[in-house]
Amino acid sequence: MDPIDYKILEILKKNAREKASNISKEIHLSVSSVIERIHHMEKEGIIQGYTTLIDENSLGNDLTALIEVRLEHPQYTEDFVSFVNQIPYVVSCYYLTGNFDYLIKISCRCSKHLEQLHQIIKNHPGVDNTCTHFVLKTTKNIYHVLPKDSA
Asked: Rounded to two decimals, what is the model's pTM?
């Protein structure tokens, strides 16, 4: 990775559908070199995929919540992770240090729907305790951070 690769990533971070020809103009590199660098970053796993950002509220998911989960024992970890990955309303799940083992981000329709999801999670074998937080407003939501001095 060199500064040019980081510049390409910064451009793709803003718009993953940006044409290689536009990137080449912005960073003063040939189109073929830009394409070659992007392919190399894909092959190396630096670029892992491309996605669409969707406005959850437009789809009727008006509630975002964070649920902290503590397991009774580490023996439940594998089963719990598999279980959480099957819930379509779970946006992300993080393994933590501290008083809780996991932090789950959920996007759902309403508080009644959240209650149903919470009951499913809380009653899963091995779950010892949960603590739920309602998100009132998202003030920052980025997905990747590039090193500050790279671009």
From this structure: 0.80
